[in-house]
């Protein structure tokens, strides 16, 4: 039985509402990560809404990158995607309600008149704003309605008093109503505008928490007033600071930001991306590396940062490398296998059990799965191509007899790490060489570079036939 003085906890419903007018980048997806994490942390719902009312700039390709990027990062919504263009009838219905209640009025001021008004205000050093010419007031006579002009619909913003909210990031924010003019909420053709559609969506979808970028702070007081005109209480707001690029500018496509899906193609792990993005504006003590499960367990709105976070690709690569190292060899092999098939390796060639062991040997040296696939390719490809510099430095005429002797000795060798190491030692003794003098050229000839983990482990994984053939053809 519930104590009647005790309010049951609210069922959290958050949303991500991108505009598909450019490819979604890390700054945008960070704005999706927090509402997703808050819904997961509280057992709530995460809703995806596509704000596609900008018909000229919205594209299906941009929608696809949003959906693909979120799916790759494991941030699938519980509901949606909902498309605003498919909800026009609903918006018009609510507009009619507002108009009937006297909260909306037609305005016939032309663009030319608005521009002239703005210029006059700016010349007088006033803030440019609509002056309420067509706002109906008791005892006021409105101008005659011009013929053949389709009006816009404006929202009758309250006069006097303040709009205030306790922002979960920025603290208390208060805006005087007199600072806000009467917002256009429907265009001359009747299509509703962004600030109005957002409020109707948030009401219909029962959104409890709006977690979004701080470029929306100026919209919030207007949206709160529309909520109240519709008899609804606004949600809790949290306005996140901007993500800056490495040059300290706002991250944007124009400033060279990459689509989120490009990071997938470059071999970054979704859990590493979530870890890195989480730290761009939120913290849990000094924890730098954490799992998705830990992030969800720890996440709340009280530890969101107030200052802009700066993207750092070197840090992202370091975080990715830590996650890569921590993955099981079998799980890594499952990620590397399709990359090798894409590069022309026959799928059946990968069934020989070597791939998890190759991943184990090289994962500490790699910061992306693409770098790991580069190493694995050496073991499955038919040839290796050392650089001219490495070949000239290590594969000299002086070392050729030792390479031939090693090839001959390995013919008789049982193919396991210990036996290969023992054979190597015998050849070194017979040839009067030290380990690096022979190991470096052997690596260059068999795997294409002098810098690898221990040579016996590498040779075992390359395989007896390939090793002997590559040594012979040095």
UniProtKB/TrEMBL annotation:
<dbReference type="GO" id="GO:0005829">
    <property type="term" value="C:cytosol"/>
</dbReference>
<feature type="short sequence motif" description="'HIGH' region">
    <location>
        <begin position="18"/>
        <end position="28"/>
    </location>
</feature>
<dbReference type="InterPro" id="IPR000924">
    <property type="entry name" value="Glu/Gln-tRNA-synth"/>
</dbReference>
<dbReference type="InterPro" id="IPR020058">
    <property type="entry name" value="Glu/Gln-tRNA-synth_Ib_cat-dom"/>
</dbReference>
<dbReference type="GO" id="GO:0008270">
    <property type="term" value="F:zinc ion binding"/>
</dbReference>
<feature type="binding site">
    <location>
        <position position="253"/>
    </location>
    <ligand>
        <name>ATP</name>
    </ligand>
</feature>
<keyword id="KW-0436">Ligase</keyword>
<keyword id="KW-0648">Protein biosynthesis</keyword>
<dbReference type="InterPro" id="IPR045462">
    <property type="entry name" value="aa-tRNA-synth_I_cd-bd"/>
</dbReference>
<comment type="similarity">
    <text>Belongs to the class-I aminoacyl-tRNA synthetase family. Glutamate--tRNA ligase type 1 subfamily.</text>
</comment>
<comment type="function">
    <text>Catalyzes the attachment of glutamate to tRNA(Glu) in a two-step reaction: glutamate is first activated by ATP to form Glu-AMP and then transferred to the acceptor end of tRNA(Glu).</text>
</comment>
<keyword id="KW-0963">Cytoplasm</keyword>
<dbReference type="InterPro" id="IPR001412">
    <property type="entry name" value="aa-tRNA-synth_I_CS"/>
</dbReference>
<feature type="short sequence motif" description="'KMSKS' region">
    <location>
        <begin position="250"/>
        <end position="254"/>
    </location>
</feature>
<feature type="domain" description="Aminoacyl-tRNA synthetase class I anticodon-binding">
    <location>
        <begin position="332"/>
        <end position="473"/>
    </location>
</feature>
<dbReference type="GO" id="GO:0006424">
    <property type="term" value="P:glutamyl-tRNA aminoacylation"/>
</dbReference>
<comment type="subunit">
    <text>Monomer.</text>
</comment>
<dbReference type="GO" id="GO:0004818">
    <property type="term" value="F:glutamate-tRNA ligase activity"/>
</dbReference>
<dbReference type="InterPro" id="IPR008925">
    <property type="entry name" value="aa_tRNA-synth_I_cd-bd_sf"/>
</dbReference>
<protein>
    <recommendedName>
        <fullName>Glutamate--tRNA ligase</fullName>
        <ecNumber>6.1.1.17</ecNumber>
    </recommendedName>
</protein>
<dbReference type="InterPro" id="IPR049940">
    <property type="entry name" value="GluQ/Sye"/>
</dbReference>
<dbReference type="InterPro" id="IPR020751">
    <property type="entry name" value="aa-tRNA-synth_I_codon-bd_sub2"/>
</dbReference>
<feature type="compositionally biased region" description="Basic and acidic residues">
    <location>
        <begin position="127"/>
        <end position="138"/>
    </location>
</feature>
<dbReference type="Pfam" id="PF19269">
    <property type="entry name" value="Anticodon_2"/>
</dbReference>
<feature type="region of interest" description="Disordered">
    <location>
        <begin position="127"/>
        <end position="148"/>
    </location>
</feature>
<keyword id="KW-0067">ATP-binding</keyword>
<dbReference type="InterPro" id="IPR033910">
    <property type="entry name" value="GluRS_core"/>
</dbReference>
<dbReference type="GO" id="GO:0000049">
    <property type="term" value="F:tRNA binding"/>
</dbReference>
<keyword id="KW-0547">Nucleotide-binding</keyword>
<dbReference type="InterPro" id="IPR004527">
    <property type="entry name" value="Glu-tRNA-ligase_bac/mito"/>
</dbReference>
<dbReference type="Pfam" id="PF00749">
    <property type="entry name" value="tRNA-synt_1c"/>
</dbReference>
<dbReference type="InterPro" id="IPR014729">
    <property type="entry name" value="Rossmann-like_a/b/a_fold"/>
</dbReference>
<dbReference type="GO" id="GO:0005524">
    <property type="term" value="F:ATP binding"/>
</dbReference>
<keyword id="KW-0030">Aminoacyl-tRNA synthetase</keyword>
<feature type="domain" description="Glutamyl/glutaminyl-tRNA synthetase class Ib catalytic">
    <location>
        <begin position="12"/>
        <end position="318"/>
    </location>
</feature>
């Amino acid at each position: 039985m519930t104590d009647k003085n005790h309010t049951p906890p609210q069922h959290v419903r958050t949303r991500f509402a991108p505009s598909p007018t450019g490819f979604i980048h890390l700054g945008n997806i960070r704005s999706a990560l927090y509402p997703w994490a808050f819904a997961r942390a509280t057992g709530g719902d995460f809703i995806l809404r596509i704000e596609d009312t900008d018909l000229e700039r919205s594209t299906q390709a941009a929608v696809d990158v949003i959906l693909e990027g979120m799916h790759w990062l494991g941030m699938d919504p519980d509901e949606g995607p909902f498309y605003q263009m498919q909800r026009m009838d609903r918006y018009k219905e609510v507009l009619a309600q507002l108009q009937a209640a006297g909260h909306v009025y037609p305005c016939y001021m032309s663009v030319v008149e608005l521009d002239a008004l703005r210029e006059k205000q700016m010349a007088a050093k006033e803030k440019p704003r609509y002056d309420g010419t067509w706002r109906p007031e008791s005892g006021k006579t409105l101008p005659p309605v011009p013929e053949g002009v389709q009006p816009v619909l404006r929202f009758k913003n309250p006069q006097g008093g303040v709009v205030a909210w306790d922002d979960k990031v920025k603290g208390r924010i208060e805006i005087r109503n007199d600072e806000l003019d009467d917002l256009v909420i429907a265009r001359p053709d009747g299509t509703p505008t962004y600030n109005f559609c957002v409020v109707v969506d948030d009401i219909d979808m029962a959104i409890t928490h709006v977690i979004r970028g701080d470029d929306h702070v100026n919209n919030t007081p207007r949206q709160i007033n529309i909520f109240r005109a519709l008899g609804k209480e606004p949600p809790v707001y949290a306005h996140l600071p901007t993500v800056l690029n490495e040059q300290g500018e706002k991250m944007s496509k124009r400033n060279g930001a990459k689509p989120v899906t490009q990071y997938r193609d470059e071999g970054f792990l979704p859990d590493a991306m979530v870890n890195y993005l989480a730290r761009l504006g939120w913290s849990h003590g000094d924890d730098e590396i954490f799992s998705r499960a830990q992030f969800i367990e720890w996440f709340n709105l009280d530890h969101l940062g107030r200052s802009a976070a700066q993207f750092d690709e070197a840090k992202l690569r370091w975080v990715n490398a830590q996650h890569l190292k921590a993955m099981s060899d079998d799980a890594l092999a499952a990620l590397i296998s399709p990359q090798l098939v894409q590069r022309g390796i026959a799928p059946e060639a990968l069934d020989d059990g070597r791939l998890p062991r190759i991943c184990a040997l090289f994962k500490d040296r790699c910061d992306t799965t693409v770098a790991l696939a580069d190493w694995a390719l050496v073991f499955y490809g038919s040839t290796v191509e050392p650089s001219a510099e490495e070949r000239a430095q290590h594969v000299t005429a002086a070392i050729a007899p030792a390479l031939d002797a090693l090839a001959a000795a390995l013919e008789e060798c049982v193919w396991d790490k210990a036996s290969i190491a023992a054979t190597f030692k015998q050849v070194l003794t017979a040839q009067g060489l030290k380990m690096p003098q022979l190991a470096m050229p052997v690596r260059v000839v068999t795997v294409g570079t002098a810098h690898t983990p221990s040579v016996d482990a590498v040779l075992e994984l390359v395989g007896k036939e390939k090793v002997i053939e590559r040594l012979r053809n040095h």
